[in-house]
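User: For a benchmark we're assembling, each entry needs the component sequences followed by a predicted structure for the full assembly. Here are entry 17's components. Please fill in the structure.
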Amino acid sequence: MRWLSRPWQLAGMVLPALIIYSLYFTYPVVYSVLQSFTDAKAFGSSTLVGAENYVSMIDDPLFWSSLRNTAIILVISLCLLLPGAFGLALLLGRRIRGAGVLRAMVFAPNVVAPILIGLIWVFILDPHLGLLNELLRLVGVAEPPEWIGGTTLSPYSIGSVYVWQTVGFIMTIFYAGLKMLPGDVMEAAELDGAAGLKRLRYVTVPMLRETIGITTVLVITGSFKIFELVVQLTGGGPVHLSETLVSYTYHVTFGLQNYGYGMALAVITSVLGVSVALGYLAFLRRKATAA
Amino acid sequence: MSTSTRTQVRSPQGDVPRRRTGRRRGWAAVVAYVVTALLILPMLWVVVLSFQTNENILRDPLNLTELNLANYQVATQTLNLMLMYKNTFILASVSVVVGVVFAYMAAYALTRMEWTRVWLRNGLRFYLLAGLAIPVYILLFPVYRLNIELGLFGTYWALILPYIAAQLPFNVLLFTGFLADFPVEVEEAAVIDGARLRTLAWRIVFPLMRPVVATLLIFNIIYVWNEYPFAVTLINDPTMTTISLGVAQFQGFWSVDYGAMMASATLVLLPQLLLYAVFQRHVVAGMTFGAVKG
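Assistant: Structure for entry 17:
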């Protein structure tokens, strides 16, 4: 189709998307990175301060507590979400009456706005009027724990709600991966005496390596992005000790109007998220070639 | 029950394995039902609370004897839910239609048209897809400033343009994925019949992309429907409140009336779930395609 390749025709097709994307995606990213090297505040002029913003993170206790909270959420997601979603996919992949409906129901929380999910869980986790503590009191726990609002349990609660919301999403990807496994290999494994857990360990899991890689990257990048749940469940409090990296960045940028520092936090958060995900992928790939 | 178990033990050997798998499947079904019920319980809880009086929620939320519709009256009278739906609908319809059309055009050019400079095509493809790796949070403040500089602050365009940009990498990914597998013969035949670019792209190939388009439309609608970070940053006009902004305000708005808060939450929750129930096939199909191919 050589005649199609007239430059103005190509340009006409590509430019609309390219212009919006460059203006509202690329330009903001570049601007953020540049701004992170200045002392920009609100709308006044700003001067270059070099890496000062990045250096001051080291002395910022709230940065470290946000990092810690993000790490807790990340670990909870990796430990609960991946095995849980995989187990669910195996379970709901069986020939169960109404399995299709069950899969659709498990996925449903992903369609609901995360901000609404947060509100819903306030009424379960709230120490005073939440369902969970009401049930605990009912079975005789005199002083049930402070799931949200305190400093110790908040990140664990946020992580758990994130697991609850996302498990159907990850489960669906695992389910698709399981469906794509060649049936004859599974049958051969069964005939060779590899049934149940043995087949799972030596046949199913190794063949799903690609799917496991994708889901892990999604879980890692997803954990770094949690924002609405923090806003709704704890508002970052008390005294910003339950902030995550993203919510703390938002607080610094729009609350304190400390743009230079906020953008430095945004850059570090993005770099951390992407590099953890990429690092994990590289690790998987090396393991694959070594095996 | 006990007699049937006993007969099973006494039955001939060959019968046992089949019965055992049958029983194990039954056990799996029970676990599956229980797990699913537990997972959807949190959403049901909100609906249950929305029928209770405020005093009941504070004192004894598990008491389900006194249920009534009073909260819904309060919620619909005080909150302007229709306004939130209208705003979200405007944002979603414009950004989703424009976003999908632009993404399709770019993807068509990148996969179906001939480029004299292949490096340019590959570079552009990489450039458009690179956005998948970048979290939108880094965009919030620069986009806020950009909107002010372009004079878009306070208009719907302030959200529509970033929504299009943020969804573009995923839309291009899905379109290029499908277009790459699409047979070229149909277009060749049309070219011989004298078809030009507009006919090829829009009247011949686009209709055949219907499943992808459906998936993308639903996906983009869900995205705009639930989007919060951009909305909370870029909107400060109460008449432009979107659904997720409205939900975020429930807590402050109903700081004492939890029943009304739950009724409002239910009024937002149920349409979302209903919409999903109708289109869930496309949602799940698009999600697995994007994930497995990406």
